[in-house]
Amino acid sequence: xxxxxxxxxxxxxxxxxxxxxxxxxxxxxxxxxxxxxxxxxxxxxxxxxxxxxxxxxxxxxxxxxxxxxxxxxxxxxxxxxxxxxxxxxxxxxxxxxxxxxxxxxxxxxxxxxxxxxxxxxxxxxxxxxxxxxxxxxxxxxxxxxxxxxxxxxxxxxxxxxxxxxxxxxxxxxxxxxxxxxxxxxxxxxxxxxxxxxxxxxxxxxxxxxxxxxxxxxxxxxxxxxxxxxxxxxxxxx
Length: 237
Known about the structure:
Blueprint: H1 9-19, H2 24-31, H3 35-42, H4 49-59, E1 78-79, E2 81-82, H5 86-93, E3 98-103, H6 109-126, H7 134-153, E4 157-171, E5 180-195, E6 203-204, E7 214-216, H8 227-234
Parallel strand pairs: 3-5
Antiparallel strand pairs: 1-6, 2-4, 4-5, 4-7
Helix pairs in contact: 2-3, 2-4, 5-7, 6-7
């Protein structure tokens, strides 16, 4: 029996995983999350509550036994703006080609189909290379407006915003060798959320969508540091 009451979340997950002879890759596959999420969780970094619940299910324990994933206010997130116009949506989608898309729990296949059509349209617009000519842009804007109106008729709201990610191309020999930085760049991505209430589209928790060698930058609100932690990081070189 693993005693986890006095451990933090990361230690709880690590101890339970070890007791089940699971590697981090095993746990990630069983929970349906990325390996980077498991690594962040075991390092004691904040992860989304949904990801914590998935890890708990894969470990065969209630999420409450692992500890708290943290409140929304202390998780890195992207503040979202409500989107109601086709021009606003197309303008947002033209800022980046990679979309972090999420939606609320659904009650019907018809709702799922409507959201899927919306997602496919967004991905198609974001993938267009080069500038849109006036007629092409208006066509995309009208299509977007039709889809937004269709979601609204079903009781859905849409929120979105762009954010930047620092990306690194690292050669680590499959995790078995010295990591060598090959290249780095900043990539703009789009966060989109579909939900039935304003709180569901107010912010997007995007950390779980980042890879091991990706770091959030502009557009992502990080938790405020307080107390000794802030003093130790702000006072040094």
